[in-house]
Amino acid sequence: MTQLLKPMVSHIDNIPSTPGKLKTEKSSPYISRLRLHYSLPKLTMWSFLFLALILFFVLLSPPSSPPTNQSSRRSLQTTSWGGPVWERRVRSSARVRSGNGLSVLVTGAAGFVGMHVSSMLKRRGDGVLGLDNFNNYYDIGLKRSRKALIERAGVFVVEGDINDPALLRKLFDVVAFTHVMHLAAQAGVRYAMQNPSSYVNSNIAGFVNLLEVCKSANPQPAIVWASSSSVYGLNSKVPFSEKDRTDHPASLYAATKKAGEEIAHTYNHIYGLSITGLRFFTVYGPWGRPDMAYFFFTKDILKGNPITIFEAANHGTVARDFTYIDDVVKGCLAALDTAKKSTGSGGKKKGSAQLRIFNLGNTSPVPVSKLVSILEKLLKVKARRRVLPMPRNGDVQFTHANISLAQKELGYKPSTDLETGLKNFVKWYLSYYDSKKSACYRVYNSQQRSLEILSNDLKGI
Ligand SMILES: *[C@@H]1O[C@H](CO)[C@@H](O)[C@H](O)[C@H]1NC(C)=O
């Protein structure tokens, strides 16, 4: 690097600040002119090539791999917030635009479910303010694209952490939110073995911090939040119903979500907060999470990489109750719409409040091998399958939701089968990653073009 820079620096030294001063130099005018003639185009060419190369590699580099303990340590020093301009944006984003609309704070708004819920609420005329810490658990570029999409729809996404009490209090000072849709969390079952503190930090400490601010708010908002089907853990009674045991989680992720359900009970009991927990069952679809199997299977099948399919003991089938994003969004909105008001105010309980928990699944578990077959058909590429015994790292053999409670109370009725949902996902995947690639080539080509124009221009000097 320094070797490359040194000649460039010496070239810079050789360029007079204004061409007119050239003749005042001590060296012979002929040599100076000769030097200028060679060095200026060369310098510019080199710097442009250098820049083009850097840009090219930055754009082509693959998304960063899951971070280590060190690099993913959450920082609360979020980008600057506050000030009259910022407050105006917050207020305007959260302003209700329809008759009896809600004013909702959506945490994890740049996440998969958060993005879809935010845009659907906004489309209905509800006021929506997003909050997201843009951590690097998976490709931040994807989160930024989701944010750009919902900001075009009028949802301001504040960059900040649910563990930051000053920021949360400020948001409630500026807006009297009627509801909080709490979707910010550390997701992923296997990653909990690499970075356990991240789960405690987001799913427990962050949740408590949020509830603390909500309970002190006046008025208190009603809260709907994302629990998980993983709380059923080693439950073998199918389908899973809300009344089943959830005290034998198989992963730290599940344990932190289960802890969240107990913490919700406490805040409901002591402070009169209205709280609804939603147990999501393997939500998938366009703009999904890259750490989920359907997503990285798609990527690997297209790349020709082998994919690993797990099987349970005695060649048992591993199956998931895949639930399409649009169905889940409807469930989330119905949960918000049917949530009763919190009863307390300013940290004091005034009466008993609503406390609910619902399964949001699809009621039809599909073997993971079937998922792969559907993807093969949609992508028109044969997968290189590797079948391995399932490791004991937190995954359960199957999930299957009993959704009759959500059906009765929320009118929840999932209507998308896996083929249809995956077709939509694949369509999105191909267009998203294809357009990213071509955007990259566009930049590269325009660099090439400006290089040509530049060198043509320089020939005229
Ligand atoms: C599903 O749950 C409901 C209670 O919400 C229960 O009455 C019903 O029997 C369950 N169905 C099955 C098939 O377990």
UniProtKB/TrEMBL annotation:
Highest taxon of the lineage: Eukaryota
MF GO annotations: UDP-glucuronate 4-epimerase activity
Domain NAD-dependent epimerase/dehydratase intervals: 104-340
Enzyme Commission numbers on file: 5.1.3.6
Matches recorded under InterPro entries: Epimerase_deHydtase, NAD(P)-bd_dom_sf
Reaction(s) this enzyme catalyzes, per UniProt: UDP-alpha-D-glucuronate = UDP-alpha-D-galacturonate
Subcellular location: Golgi apparatus, Golgi stack membrane
Membrane-topology annotation of the record: Multi-pass membrane protein
Any one annotated GO CC term: Golgi cisterna membrane
Enzyme's top EC category: isomerase
Xref: Pfam families: Epimerase
Parts of the chain that traverse the membrane: 43-61
Keyword line: Isomerase, Membrane, NAD, Transmembrane, Transmembrane helix
Family: Belongs to the NAD(P)-dependent epimerase/dehydratase family.
Oligomeric form and interacting partners: Homodimer.
Protein name: UDP-glucuronate 4-epimerase
